[in-house]
Amino acid sequence: MPVYLNEAYERRVREGRRTTVQDLREVMMEGVVQRVRLKVMTVTAVMGGLLPIMWTTGPDADMMKRIAAPMIGGMADSTILTLIFLPILYAMWRRVQLCCVIPSPVS
């Protein structure tokens, strides 16, 4: 996610558009939208494979359920982390840069 957010931010800077705190929301939406589809597709595929394991009742099903349950929880947690918390932290970091006039490392 930070790669997509950085690319969106740096593209705006390269185009010569001055980035303000108000423009930061646009940058965030642009970066997040690029990543949402990829993340949702991955999570759907992994959970689609793990959910049948959670519902099985055959031999060794208890052992497989103990393996699948944390993986499903991890996928849900990583989705929330990637799509909500990382963009918020990135926005806070960029906001501090913009308010304190720290030059961004654009090459």
From TrEMBL:
InterPro entries: Acrflvin-R. GO terms for molecular function: xenobiotic transmembrane transporter activity. It comes from the Bacteria. The chain crosses the membrane at residues 38-55, 67-89. Keywords: Membrane, Transmembrane, Transmembrane helix. Pfam families: ACR_tran (PF00873). One of its GO terms (cellular component) is plasma membrane. The keyword DNA repair does not apply. Signal peptide: none annotated. This is Uncharacterized protein.
